[in-house]
User: Fold these one by one.
Assistant:
Number 1:
Amino acid sequence: MKRAFSREQKITIIYGILSIVLIIVILQLWLLTATMNAFLGGEESVIVPAAIASAVCFALNAGLLRYIYLMESR
Amino acid sequence: MATTNPDSIPPDGRPYHEQPQWRNDFPIDWPQDELVARRDFTKFLVLTSLAFVVGQAWIAFENWSRKRQGRPPVHKIARVDEVPVGATRVFTYPVAHENCLLIRSGADRFVAYSQKCTHLSCAVTPTSRGLHCPCHNGWFDTATGQPTAGPPRRPLPRITLEIRDGVLYATGVEVRS
């Protein structure tokens, strides 16, 4: 059986998740600006891989957010 | 009577009997408030992350529609003898609202570029020192279209030219990085 976290533990976990999400969002921002620069410069080869990488980052973020809600509902 | 909820510590840290009445009447559970605030901020960041994915998808769509259009049409610009050496001429290519600059720098030397500055799309104008973007003082080399000063980092898109029977034609757009 899974043990419910205390409130202090939950806050620590949320801080950890928030830090990871923040780093991933900054990475996505960099990815978007680099892709836009490549697109405007006529470089097409990076566009689709960058879109896939960004979607993977979002899936990771959504998974972490879901974990927060699941943790709170326990 | 003062509340003694250990989770509800006032922000100034003083005990409840020293707090104003309103705080005793409406005690705030600060750790819970902090938990909810961090959770909502994480939710906001995840929505931002989704917005970036939408942005990437938009770039991919624009690239796909650009490729789908295929090669731009061949378009007549002017007769060679209509453009004296050192003169410039504005023409539209490949569509009516895309202004381009034709420059004749020598007897047999023609170059043409898109007139849109690669910084923020203002119109560049030919000067004796090169092509100048007046919006943010950007400069491009007339012979190559490469940026030489100011905020632009990418060269101007080059219009490929062809001379047939003394007539200049635009045959394509070369986007460069």
Note: The mean pLDDT of chain A is 91.
Number 2:
Amino acid sequence: MAQDDKMAAVACTQWEEDLVLHYYGELAVNERAAVDDHVRGCEPCRFYLKELESILPLTVKPDEPPQTFWDDYSREMRRKLTQVSDKKSWWQNLASFFQPWAIPVSATAAVAILALTLALGKGFWSSKDVPQDDEVFMEILPAAENLEFFKTMDVLDAMDFLEDMGSPGKGSA
Amino acid sequence: MQPGDEDLVALARKGDHKAFEELVERHKQKAYRIAFDFARDREEAKDLSQEAFLRAYTHLGNFDGRSGFYTWFYRILVNVCLDYKRRKKRTFAEEFNEAVESQMEPSQVSQKPPSPDQQVLAGQLSRKVGAALEALPPKQRTAFILKNNQGLSIKEIAEMMQTAEGTVKVHLHRAVTALRQSLAEFA
């Protein structure tokens, strides 16, 4: 009878995985021998292994459908496959309809992409040759300063000229 | 001499329906059984395994032959089953009724009709196992079902799950540990 307070057996932690593999026959000969040796001298691990043998088969739910079930299965499967094939052929027909257009459409798309790339690329490359605003300003600034200098010089020249005109010895010159 | 699975796949790819139907005939029982281990219900297992066959049929172009048809197809099947499990939320009442009904089928337990006590215990066990399996993460559940119920080798499971053998061992160990704890009362 089932007991609700029954606890699972506790095996040696380092052997647990090997015990599971031992139960499923997935250990190499030498590994199996090592587990067997350990289990002989370890009661908790022996109990753990017994518990696996009693619990794990319970997890398999038996089911053996009758022959009529398999006949229905095959019949249904054939019907479903036919439906899928019909759908598939519809798509195949559609694809074959567009087949002649595939090459011209691809070529046009390729040309369009190339043209677009060149157009955008040109803008991108030429923009690299154009100096930045700061650079332009730095180039203009010395020229402007020179202009101011020359303007100042013109004013001074004009003043000298006026002075010369105003002086008595040179006034009539 | 019978054509191999791969020969039938090649024929089916060329549009030979009969070739694929032959593949279905070859693998239907095993496919159904795996689906049943996941779904624990006959009709659902039938639907799931058929769905897997249809997916395989429509995606035959993706089969590159690196693994056998068997491995490729069962990978599809397991994915179909896991997707279904993710989608489906079953009520406790449905599971209870189903478990009791299935245990009452005479072919499943023994030739003698089970006593009411046995029926109750069997129903309780079935529910508990179903719930414990359901609670496992998908990878653990897959590794466990393929090993425990289908008897596949760790190597085959690793190939099917596209993972390392060591990883399958870890999944299996964790699944067994969890199930032991859930089902200790039935030991």
Note: DSSP finds six helices and no strands in chain A.
